[in-house]
Amino acid sequence: MNETARVQPIEWLGDRVRILDQTLLPGRIEYIDTGDYRVVADAIRRLCVRGAPAIGVAGAYGAALGALALKNGDSDTFLKEFNSILGFLASTRPTAVNLSWALSRVEAAARRPRTIPEIKEAVVAEAQAIQRHEEEATDRLSRYGADLIGDGFTVLTHCNAGSLATCGCGTALGVIKAAKAQGKKLHVFATETRPLLQGARLTAWELVQERIPVTLITDSMAGHFLSKGTIDAVVVGADRVAANGDVANKIGTYSIAVLAGENGVPFYVAAPLSTIDLAINSGKDIPIEERNHAEVTHIAGVRLAAEGVEVANPAFDVTPAKHVSAIITERGVVRPPYSPRLERLFGPELETKA
C-alpha cells in the first residue's frame, strides 16, 4: 500500500486532538484543533469525522480530553463526572457500534488506577491504544480481503471506507489497496452515495491519490452495471454487524447487495471486530440514525426540493446476512453460516480462517 498517500483523519497532539474536517473535502483541507471534548462531539455529529472505526477513535480522544479537563477531587466524584462525559459523547451517533466499544474501553481503563492523575494517564493511554488497534486491524483485514480480489477485477464500492473512515488503510478500500499492492490490476466503480456524496467527495478522491483507476457513478446506476457483467465483486464497509451476520451500512447498501445477488456477483463486507456487535442478535435490533432533512433537500447549501415537501433521511440500512457472501475481519474471512462463526472470532486464540 502507498503509505505516503494515507490520510490521517485524527491525531493526538498531547493535550489536544486534531481532526480533519471531511465536510470540506476534496475542495479544502482544513483541521479542527481542540482541547474540548464538546468540540469533538460536535465534529462527530456534523460528520467532520466519520466512518465507524474513526468515530470510535475520535470518541476515545474526546473522552481523554474530558478527563484531562476535570478538576482534581476524590476519585468517586471524578469518575461520576467522567461517566457523564462518556454519555454525552455516546449520544452523538447511535448506529456505529465502534463508538460505544471505544468508550467502554476507556471507561474500564479509568476504573483500574486509584489516583486521579493515574486515571487521566490511563485514559489517554487507552485512547492511543484504540487508535493503534484500529490501524493494525484494518491493515490485517485488508490483506485477508485482497485474496478475494482477482487480477483484472472491477470492484464496486458504496460510500467511503478508506483511510478517512478508519485511521488505518481502510476496510473496503483497504482491501482494494492491498490487492493493488499484490500487483493486481484493478478498476473501481464508486457510487456517489447520496445524500452527502461521500463516494464522490471522499472515495473517488482517495482512489485518485492511490492512483487506482476509478469510475464514479450515481447510486441508481449500480444495478445497470451489475446486470451488464461489468462488476466482478462488491466490497463495502460496515457500521455494525449483528451476531447473525446482518450488516448495517450506509443507506443504499441493501439495494446493492440484492442486485449483486441477483446477478451472481459476490458481496463482501470488510469490518474489524470492533464493528461486530454480538450483543445484538439481528439487524432488526440495530438503531438506525435519522439525520437532518436538509441533507436531502439541499446540496452544498442550495435547496433543490420544493418547500413543504416531506422528507425521510435514514443514514443507514440493514443488509440481511443471506445477501452477504463473506465478512472480512482481521482474524480472517468468515463465510455463512455466520452464527456461531462470528462469535468464535472473539476467542483467545488468533484464528486465521473461520
List keywords for this structure.
single chain, 354 residues, alpha/beta, Four Helix Bundle (Hemerythrin (Met), subunit A), Rossmann fold, 2 domains, seven-stranded mixed beta sheet, four-stranded mixed beta sheet, 16% strand, disordered N terminus, disordered C terminus
Structure at a glance:
This protein is of the alpha/beta class.
Outline type:
globular
User: What portion of residues belong to β-strands?
Assistant: 15-25%
Distance between the termini: 25 Å
Find the structural class using helix and strand composition: alpha/beta
Q: For the largest sheet, list the strands in their spatial order.
A: 6-5-4-7-10-15-16
Order of helices and strands: EEEHHHHHEHHEHEHEEEHEEHEEEEEH
Low-confidence stretches: 1-5, 349-354
Overall number of strands:
16
- CATH evolutionary superfamily of the largest domain: Translation initiation factor eif-2b, domain 2
What does the radius of gyration come to?
Answer: 20 Å
